[in-house]
Amino acid sequence: MALVPVGPLLQKAREGRYAVGAFNCNNLEILQAIIAAAEAERSPVIIQASQGGLKYAGLEYITAMVQAAAAKAAVPVALNLDHGTSFEQAVRCIRAGFTAVMVDGSHLPFAENVELVRRVVDVAHCVGVSVEGELGRIGGKEDDIVVAAADAFFTDPDEARQFVAETGVDALAVAIGTAHGVYKGEPKLDFARLAKISRKVDVPLVLHGASGLSDEAISEAIQLGITKINIDTEIRQAFAQGVREVLAKDPGEIDPRRILGPARERMQEVVQRKMRLFGCSRRA
User: Fold this and answer.
1) CA torsion sign, 243 to 281 to 222 to 164?
2) Active site residues
3) Is residue 137 a contact partner of residue 152, using CB atoms and an 8 Å limit?
């Protein structure tokens, strides 16, 4: 089937009190693993391209690969820009065929963040593309996006309500204590804050930096309104594990298919496990 927008997937998830997984893609094997997992679980799925993914594979290659995968898939597949850096980049992705864009103005003053996201919404909604904004700053490192711990801050519930009203976004990424990258220790999430945001905001909420969170934390976040959960780091870890296992057994192996095939299997296992945890299995 053709690529679908993220907005309707998340609205359905919100009504059903589950979350849709959004998985970052950098190459063919990662994409194949995600799609195979979605079909095995009969789950809707969001494929994401970050700044690093776009630089590595190229906008045209990412778009063409995901469009080809979606055309063959028997489950709904969306293509989302993750942490878009500008209005211009969001428009380029929309023109290329993305069905959703996340524009990250969280580093800007509130009014400037609103203005940036509203401009993207005005363009995207004209062509049926969903938009995700972010309020509050999520710490850690994701490709070219680096936020030091001292610069991270949580989402204010009242500002979240104002932000959604003034921008018209389809989804809102919130900062409640997660971080991008590998955690050092157990993160402490502000579930009371998430509950307040959920009561004040009438759009699906998004959790970034979810790799490494406990199953219990994920489940509680979903019950409190999270309907899109981003996973990247755990996919990378599974990829690296699969490659290392092959080369440890046979350091002389040179066939990319033999090296990358097991890595693809490891990634698929991770994605399927997340889909079952998120509750999106058998929701396609």
Assistant:
1) positive
2) 82
3) yes
Query: In sequence order, which residues have a C-beta less than 8 Å from that of residue 136 and are 6 or more positions away?
Result: 106, 153, 154, 155, 156, 174, 175, 176
- DSSP conformational letter for 63: H
Measured N-to-C along each axis, helices 215-223 and 191-200 cross at an angle, to the nearest 10 degrees, of 30
CATH of domain 6-278: 3.20.20.70
What residue spans define the domains of the chain? 6-278
Which of helix, strand or coil describes residue 207? Answer: strand
Is residue 31 within 8 Å of residue 47, measured between CB atoms? yes
Closest CA to 46 of 12, 94, 78, 1: 78
Rounded CA-CA distance 148/127 in Å is 36
So what's the pLDDT on residue 180?
53
Cα distance from N-terminal residue to C-terminal residue, the chain: 12
Q: What is the pTM of this model?
A: 0.91
SS3 of 132, please? strand
Q: Which residues contact 156 (CB under 8 A, 6 or more apart)?
A: 135, 136
Model pLDDT, residue 188: 80
Ramachandran class of 69: left when φ > 0, alpha when ψ lies in -120 to 50, beta otherwise:
alpha
Regions of the chain with pLDDT less than 50: 140-142, 145-151, 183-184
Q: Quote the CA–CA distance of 130 and 98 in Å, as a whole number.
A: 9
3-class SS of residue 105: coil
Coil, helix or strand at residue 204: coil
DSSP-assigned states of every residue in 157-174: HHHHHHHHHHH--SEEEE
d(CA 259, CA 40): 23
Q: What is the pLDDT of residue 181?
A: 53
